[in-house]
Amino acid sequence: MLEGVRLVDHHCHGVVRGPLDRAAFELLATESDRPAPPGCTTLDSQLGFAIRRWCAPLLGLAPHAPAEDYLARRDQLGPAEVNRRLLGAAGVATFLVDTGFRAGDLLTPAELGAAAGASAAEVVRLEAVAERVAEGGVSADGFAAAYADALATATTDAVAVKSVLAYRHGLDIAPEPPTASQVRTAAGRWLRRAEAALPPGPRDGSPGDGSPGDGSPGARGLRLDDPVLLRHVLWAGVQRGLPVQIHTGFGDPDLDLARADPALLTGFLRAVADRDVAIMLLHCYPFHRQAGYLAQVFPHVYLDVGLALNHVGARAPAVLAESLELAPFHQVLYSSDAFGLPELHLLGAALFREALAEVLDGWVAAGRWSGADARRVADMVGAGNAARVYRLGD
Amino acid sequence: MLEGVRLVDHHCHGVVRGPLDRAAFELLATESDRPAPPGCTTLDSQLGFAIRRWCAPLLGLAPHAPAEDYLARRDQLGPAEVNRRLLGAAGVATFLVDTGFRAGDLLTPAELGAAAGASAAEVVRLEAVAERVAEGGVSADGFAAAYADALATATTDAVAVKSVLAYRHGLDIAPEPPTASQVRTAAGRWLRRAEAALPPGPRDGSPGDGSPGDGSPGARGLRLDDPVLLRHVLWAGVQRGLPVQIHTGFGDPDLDLARADPALLTGFLRAVADRDVAIMLLHCYPFHRQAGYLAQVFPHVYLDVGLALNHVGARAPAVLAESLELAPFHQVLYSSDAFGLPELHLLGAALFREALAEVLDGWVAAGRWSGADARRVADMVGAGNAARVYRLGD
Amino acid sequence: MLEGVRLVDHHCHGVVRGPLDRAAFELLATESDRPAPPGCTTLDSQLGFAIRRWCAPLLGLAPHAPAEDYLARRDQLGPAEVNRRLLGAAGVATFLVDTGFRAGDLLTPAELGAAAGASAAEVVRLEAVAERVAEGGVSADGFAAAYADALATATTDAVAVKSVLAYRHGLDIAPEPPTASQVRTAAGRWLRRAEAALPPGPRDGSPGDGSPGDGSPGARGLRLDDPVLLRHVLWAGVQRGLPVQIHTGFGDPDLDLARADPALLTGFLRAVADRDVAIMLLHCYPFHRQAGYLAQVFPHVYLDVGLALNHVGARAPAVLAESLELAPFHQVLYSSDAFGLPELHLLGAALFREALAEVLDGWVAAGRWSGADARRVADMVGAGNAARVYRLGD
């Protein structure tokens, strides 16, 4: 199952260029923005154990080598070699890379692809484009047109756009686009507030200070969190015509999990049903069953359980199996949502392959599925669906 | 386990009388009202794979025969023979049939029973009775009395009533019944709106144009969606004294899944706790654990995971096991929620039997349950609880 | 796994002193406050089956002995001997005992410890302290100071405080503490309402009349259910500096399950993140995945799936495994939430040990975890984390 298949990772980020000390490594191995309690380590987690199991052998250590040994060996090899080994072993044919968060610290999509022996394409974050427009200077009246222009330019070569509405407001939004006048008023309010705040600092933080989910410039700059503008840029993304990725489910502590249930998007999904645009529900946990329902009733809705598989480690088969209940198999995709650590790219792929094989083999062994169907579905979920939706062969 | 037991299907619908082309068959095999994306098929789903596994052999094909072969063989045999084979193999003693949706296209309860060699009784949909009252002509002042009369007449031989509140509004309702004056005002508003709409067309659509969940006449007629009237007919159902079935959890795209969580009914369940009426939470997925809690704390509350077992196919044991966590075993029932396709009647029963046997055998093998308890619970859930609650032997 | 480990039960209650008739026993074996439907028994449940499996042998009967035989044998041995056998077999080193509900019917912490050969410490219920302050007579102006004094006194020897906000209002609260003036107004309103009610009767009911979750004096006295005061006592608990236990997830029928999702506490958890106080999310089911997310992103947040393991019985491994997905392993604890029946203390421990062993052994066997990690995590979750957070060795 999936043995000869090179995956399409339909949502990930770059990896850090330079060396990482233990504290920085630990913060990239959790969705938290705080260290573990005193005397504890974020690596005492499913993700930490999975790193030691899968990645240690790729660095020449025994599986489950102690974290100390692993980090020492990592330092010894250096970032370029570690990146090369782990990225290469992921067996990914194409990375679709969200460049909207801390891009300066990370390998570019082209560099990521080169390190992995893979191709790469860009996913453009809708909110980051708005923040760049505001930083460049724009009036409230001119915001909508300037945003449309900037989005067109930014997405010339992109394969998708992405929304972080879940982090900035919650998915409980009015389903229809705001009116031009509402956008103007909201832009005025937001731009005035931004001017009154501190001048923006450098756009990217140091490697250890955050996690990839949100990617806002935070207190240092213009963070797009106005609900009217968030809806506006989401609808601008729909009008652009590329697949629209929407973060749903868990992530870093900026979000309110109860407001990240993709079922809250039902009205929006109905509103865009006839626009021939694919909506990609990213990650979804612990609401992946809700996402599966949405995929069944709306043929333009897709889902993955990336991010979750990495963080649940040994439980990946259980979570993946839950994502294969209501969703039609042509609407489920693979992603890693890896950020910063090449370990997360490797693990995403390794856990996905192992989990999918375990789940499908079980169904075949019990006579519930045919082997041919299982292989066909594995290919679809691992690569084929993404190639079709993102037109990767075109 | 359950080998000699003939089931009671406490909530299902009739099956289509005539032949079905592939498009119509596909739409009856999903909760969506839209076809799969271009180049894809709704049969690439757990339900599609389960049909090919379980039903193909009953039509004389190998398990997992290709969908094309299956549909060709189905056509060759003709609807009457297909219905006879699949319904008969379900091993159901009694069907409780919701007749409130597209009844004209479907076998009647008596015909369904005859085709299956089983008995059948009727479940009356509360909203459909209101729509018939309105279509017959009624004033706002006369609505409540006319509804009570019509419900009494419609349920003379019925074993239960059913609410589709989840589809028409959501389960987040005020728990108490509306006052007479509120009902009058709401009826006036609804009847005026209905008169202003187009004259109703034929009450039933063509076989392929919908799914069973909602059963509204839609844009063509009087759709009861006023929240006050929905509460009124629900309480009228309570006053009627029969078990009240309430759709909860996933269904067709008319509903908002986040508003279909049965836990939203808590206030209502408290309000009817002393009225000696059983409330049957239908289907519940993915909120079946919430439903299990409600069943534990409220002895008048029952649940099933029908519909879900069909749609999750190979995952039926996992979902069924989750429904057997908090719920007392005398409050869990079997249903298929089959609509249109006899395949869904067969699958409901086959997946339920297989899943229950797998789950209970596992607990017995691990020493967690005794074999005698397992057999007793299987009989209760498969038939005994329904016979008791619906007084089927009386 | 865990074989030589004596557990810390970080949240439980005392057990009943005297004999119990069947009706009283049945009501202590369910979260309901009503008997099972006629002809049915609350012991036809996962909990009932687990009692017969695990406890019958400790009373000298075969596993799965009929409920009648079990209850007869229980009567024959008498409460003291049954308590001694079942509590002793739990293998608990330390009980942290919530004394805020029906304490007069139950063994005190010291008596509980003595019967089990264990140590015991007290958990003080924040709302019960407020109700005692009000019963003792206090003005609206004096309430806040009197409460602070009473809490300091009540917690002199306590290891934790506990909130039943989920039962009295729901977890959907404003995150910040109320102002002094808001507290004064709310106290005046609550105290006037309480005076207008009937004079309080005896504080504790008869053994069979309730379940432990709420512990309110109910209609007979002062029930703290004012949302402002509930927030006030919660923040007073935070200021006290001990770990703050918060009931979340299912419980008795006083609560609204949809408002008991710990994710609703996100704002509050953010607001207390820098106060060096541990927040213990109790029980959590069916929202234990949400709780796991909160534990990952907030290092001051802990969780258990006590109460749930008892009630899901044979499903304990599945539920426990779900609680070990996102949560760091140093933030997961053991509790039984046992109340009234020593069976619940025994079962909590037995099901936890068996479930954890099954889950971790499976991961080790599959090569996902090392054996050494599994043993280390078992010790942490079973005892070490609680010892650290509650400073039990100090």
UniProtKB/TrEMBL annotation, chains A, B, C:
Residues 220-392 form the Amidohydrolase-related domain. This is Amidohydrolase-related domain-containing protein. Pfam families: Amidohydro_2. Residues 207-218 have a biased composition (Gly residues). Residues 197-221 are annotated as: Disordered. GO terms for molecular function: hydrolase activity. Gene3D superfamilies: Metal-dependent hydrolases.
